[in-house]
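Lay summary

Proteins are chains of building blocks that fold into shapes. Our project writes down both the chain and a compact code for its shape. Here are two examples, one after the other.
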Amino acid sequence: MTNTRVIVVGAGIAGPVLAIFLKTRGYDPIIYERLPSPGEGGLSFILQPNGLRVLSLIPGLLEQIPGHSPDRMIHCSSLEGKEDILVDLDISPDTMRERFGFPLIGVRRAEFQRLLINTAEKHGIEIKWGHQATEFEQSENAVQVTFANGIKDIASFVVGCDGLHSNTRIALFGKEKANFTGLAQCGGLSPTPPALRGKFAMINNYGNGRHMISYPVAEDQWAWAITTRETEVKEDWKTQHVEQQNEIRRGPLSDWAFGAGDLVKTGQNIVKYGLYDRPELKSWFKGRIVLLGDAAHPTSPHLGQGANQAFEDIYHIMRLLKKYNPSASQPSTELLSQVFIDYQDLRLPRTSELVRGARQQGEARVVEGIDACRVRDEKIRIVFHDDAAKMAQSNLLSGPFKDSEL
């Protein structure tokens, strides 16, 4: 009997991880990616304990992750020339492992993606680059996918892991209007400046109408991103032209305290992009096609949970496939519907809550006016001592399981 074939659309971050889980549990996944090769798009993100808990189920993967763990989380404010430390917390690997079992790891997206692709290929998973999925035709027992280059392929079911601009989502539910939130981000990678040498911290800098997060991704390199209120900016992650990058390096952000200005001045491959909202879906699947990660629940980056929540999606969809189809045999549409209904009923409310929370966090960070900023700063001081906030963080970082059901 041939293994059940699964088409995974997207070779970004979620797609290769899902394919590895499918392969090791008896399925026959193949990944199709619209880009011609692994991209350099995106800067960095933080792998958090809930995401690492899922990745730990892939033997040997955690030990290979390229990146760096911060020791402290520092929140600081610069208003009217006054520099103030609002919060300074211990988030060292030992402390995080004691609390949650796993540390925080800052990674460069491109490096981490290459690790996942290499790991998938070592598991015998084929990745076809330069294949943009455009049409999905479902029959009783299969899905035929047509790509922009005219090639077609057939699988038992399809998982759309194709991110923010998901063609799979459009094919299922139509093209939606993306609404500009009024916020934009610019960011880059920088050599460690003198002010931050020997400090491996995740630093949040707050100013009047702006916020910056920065953290190490290597011994000698930091990643950073600044959120500001702007008129509409395109939603792309393309590196700015040299003149545009120099304008950012020389602009008012380069005067920021706590080493932040030095990061801006020396920023490399600086990108700038608008942050957009999309309608919340009521369902994540149709028939034998299901969405996962940003394709299902695109989020602004202010909680740093985008990739980590995609990994939680993967855990639960694999857990449910094991529950309802333990032999990994060719599933009926009814069986897949049961898997997908349980999956979305569990994950849709949770991810919707986090998407709203990320949006609110972004708005709160970039309030304008000195008085409003002082109120914001005081709330930041208080929230890290709030029992409800501590419990919410603990619940988030302790997911998606205590004892794996895989």
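And here is the second example, written the same way.
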Amino acid sequence: MEYLFEIQVKINMSHYNVIEAVPIEIECVLEIKGRSKKGDDGVWVLKAKNLTRNHEPSTDISGYPSFRRLSPNDVQSVKNMTLSGIPLRQTLSSLSQGNPNLPAVSQTIYNLKAKIRKESLGNRSMVNALFEEFEKEGFIYDILHNSIEHITHLFIAHPLSIKLAKSFSNIFIMDCTYKTNKYNMPLLDIIGVSCFNTSFYSGFVFLEREDEDSYIWALSVFKKTLENREPSVIMSDRELELMNAINMVFPNTTNLLCIWHIEKNVLANCKKRFAHTEDFNLFMSGGFQDVTEMICLAIKYEFNEIKVKLASERIQVLHNCDAPVFRELLCRVSHFALKEIHMQYEKINTGTMTPCTGYFMATMAPPCAHKIKHLEGMTLSLDLVHPQWRIDTLRLNSKDNLHNDGAKEFDELLSELSSRYQMWPQSKK
């Protein structure tokens, strides 16, 4: 039988620090007291009051939580890694690299993270802390309550997500994941598609249930964030309630069915991706605040990725597209779209054209091989490329005030027009 005890620290009136070893959970009567007088350079005096035991002495102290306690530096490292969204297993591995003899186990990190989360709340309730985080990060959010003031619907969108969604408002993918939070509320993911054919988070909606009314509310709130713009295409799985809601809120939008289903069922497909049960349990135990923190990290990362790629492709010329026919498209159309157009162009040169079905232009929007051949070697005009793939008209700046985007872009256009005007010949002016 193991001997379990807790240390109680008291401060008495004589400026002595007093500790007592008090048995817990088992009926061992062993009792030890210690004290340290203030100013004694940290020296403690221990006195045994009762050495009687009802068990053999422990030969392995690693079973005691006090032995697995982390140093202050390790505690700070865990805090930093938690804020960075690093998973529990990787956190433990990182600490172990710095200290091969680290006594901590996964439960140690799990308990510390729970303590950090509790400390961050302070005296605030979970919901109050959540909304304070929304305000601090500049989230757009909307909620619905039931008759007893419980949250039944929660829409959240990061300001950078809104900026991306407005910049790339043609294509969105929508799908619900299941039980990704401790409230077992379905989470509707709204995913956008950039001009590089990469995806980004546009918004998230926690729903009480997956019915038509819930989806109509969610899509209506999302439509407001887009300033009432209607996407060209929304892709979803064959969920009739969501499809009906799309037709109601976005009547002019084409609703396509996904060939592959995004995260169809987290419980069925996600758990096997976790090598350790405790990692999956930690993933499943997250509340609204935990999800929000992970969302912030992911969105800031992908926004920066798109912003950097945008700046990079504006100054890079694809080697195989450095030809007169592509002159007007270079540095104005994404490399993804240019490569697609070049593949169509090569079909003309290699004689591999097939009868035109219209499928390529209907699904991708750039000109197909037949359209290019019809132009008979003329320079391809920007008008032939859908705005979805344009990079010359985009302005992405994370520090911009989102509400003034329209005015800022208009001022920039006027400035650009003024500069070009000065260079035009008199006839064009």
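What can we say about the second shape? Residues 1-18 have pLDDT under 50 and may be disordered.
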